[in-house]
Amino acid sequence: MKFEQLLNHFDTGVCVDQMQKEALIDIALLFIGVDGVISESEKHVVRKWAKSLHWNSAIALDDYIEDSLSKSVVAIKNNDIEAYVQHRMNNIIDEPMRKLAKDLAVRVIEADGNVKQAEKEALAILEAEL
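Given the sequence above, the corresponding structure tokens read:
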């Protein structure tokens, strides 16, 4: 399945590396709001990490982050966290990048110093996808 996804991405001219970066950002941003609060300390963790990426997209990184954050908030409000995580993790093909998704999520939820039950539950969903 993953090989087929990889071929499809090459066939459509999509840079797999960039797709994985976008999916990682999407996952990290989901964890900012999963507890119902958008924390500036959590946003800072994601922005700082994202700025270290070699971003290769027609969409500016800051614009992508804002758009993705709003989509993750909708997923949270609609209780679609599991589907959101599954969809994004399907775009993360490399094993080290999949592990990075979890590491980022943990850094985000620990950034405000208060790991809530909703964050633990979302982390369990993410871990199930690894």
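The chain has one domain: 2-6+16-129. Try to locate this feature in the token string yourself.
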